[in-house]
Predict the 3D structure of the following.
Amino acid sequence: MTETILTLILFAMLVAVAFAIIQMRQLFAVVLLSSVFSLLTALLFVIMDAVDVAFTEAAVGAGISTVLMLGTIALTRKRSAERTRSDILPFFVVAVTGAALVYGTLDMPNFGDANAPANAYLRQDYLDRSVTEIDVPNVVTAILASYRGFDTLGETAVVFTAGIGVLLLLGGLAYRRAEDDEES
Amino acid sequence: MQHHLILRVVVKILVAAIILFALYVQFHGDFSPGGGFQAGVIMAAAFILYGIVFGMAKVKQVVPEWVVHRMMGLGVLIYAGCGVASMFLGYEFLNYNAFTPHHPSHGQHYGLLIVEFGVGVTVTGVMISIFYAFASRPPTLKDSDW
């Protein structure tokens, strides 16, 4: 009962924050409100007993990404630049990528489907087997790092790639500028 | 930000606590919520907080740019290296039973610790690198525009 009330209150606050973000014209306030949004989401995850996810949401969503958004605001100007090139090619790329992603989800089972492999047997299987095979109390860690070790390796590689991408886009420029200054 | 005395004193104390908490989340991940990813983010948050309050020059003395750049790759190498090591011991890629064949679940514990450490190193490196990349550029926004 308490859980339902808490969930309803948190969801109501989420919606309120979302509307406030739409209403805001000041980017600084928008960033701080999106941090609040993440914190509320983290609380909802805690109520749903997904503490590991809540942890990540609180640290990444409310913490690091807020700092990065503030850093981005500091790098941008108040008014957007006049567009000189047409939007057709970027729109086409985004549309095709989006369509491919939607097409990829068509194979996935419906949300909460009782016959989905995860609900039908896999979850129980992990819970039963991890006690003897892995023998750690936190089943999430056992699944992520052992049963799904290959996926997590891929995930780490994705984080690595994201870091390289940002460095190439932002850091590389800084290096080049520093070199130009030395030469001149 | 020289005039923010209270902020600087509080952050000095907080940074130590945050790093300690990150290490707890990192190495206690098999028993409590959290793991390499969360620990990496918390660890990075400690250095980012330090950088925000004391300035980029100070935080780059603690963790220079070349260190965080190498950490990004090092973590993935630790993770993949763990898998390759288990292959050399005659098991499948990332099968941690290889480390202690007589007691498989102990091998799993070692494996979890190693790969989570790899994830933590990469995430810490990437998060701090991204922060450096953003914060090291000269701001174009004037203070009055915020």
Notes: The helical segments of chain A are 2-23, 27-47, 51-75, 88-105, 117-133, 139-147, 149-183. The mean pLDDT of chain A is 86.
